[in-house]
Write a sequence for this structure.
């Protein structure tokens, strides 16, 4: 994706992200797996950057395109295509364009059914938190330790992941977690 994003004017994602060249997965103190990401071009093989920052950079790149119009909060129904473009309905309005990108959520089935597109996969409940803290240097640059286990965070055998990020994420202060529905969990 980094090459695609760079080609459409969002190269800052690769520039701002923290480069990973290796990853390790542990269960408690036992390493379960490790792998290296090979550098094969001018872009890093993988970067870690927050989703919110990625979306911000992509939104800025889209806003700089005079031929792209973004409409938030529109329910797209009744897509129809022909040799000259696409017509979609958004409520009572019909819109016509050469191309349309409708960003439907994972649970949106009506639009997929109208287009004959499937979204295979599974859903599962996940309770997650984010904790910002300064970690000492571990290993070589780009060799990011990942510690993970199964179960609920904070319980014996629970899941904990350590992922380095290039800059602070979210609105909390270091040492706090932002939990489900935006509540703070210390």
């Amino acid at each position: 994706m980094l090459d695609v994003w760079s080609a459409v004017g969002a190269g800052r994602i690769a520039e701002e992200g923290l480069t990973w060249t290796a990853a390790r997965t542990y269960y408690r103190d036992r390493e379960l797996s490790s792998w290296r990401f090979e550098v094969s071009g001018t872009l890093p093989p993988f970067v870690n950057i927050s989703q919110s920052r990625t979306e911000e950079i992509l939104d800025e790149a889209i806003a700089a395109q005079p031929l792209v119009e973004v409409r938030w909060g529109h329910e797209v129904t009744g897509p129809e295509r022909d040799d000259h473009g696409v017509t979609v309905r958004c409520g009572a309005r019909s819109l016509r364009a050469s191309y349309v990108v409708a960003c439907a959520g994972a649970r949106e089935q009506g639009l997929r059914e109208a287009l004959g597109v499937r979204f295979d996969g599974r859903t599962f409940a996940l309770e997650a938190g984010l904790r910002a803290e300064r970690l000492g240097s571990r290993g070589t640059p780009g060799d990011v330790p990942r510690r993970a286990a199964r179960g609920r965070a904070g319980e014996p055998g629970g899941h904990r992941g350590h992922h380095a990020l290039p800059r602070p994420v979210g609105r909390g202060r270091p040492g706090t977690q932002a939990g489900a529905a935006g509540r703070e969990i210390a």
In short: Residues 2-60+124-185 form one domain. The first strand starts at residue 18 and ends at 19. The chain has two domains: 2-60+124-185, 71-115. The chain has four helices and ten strands.
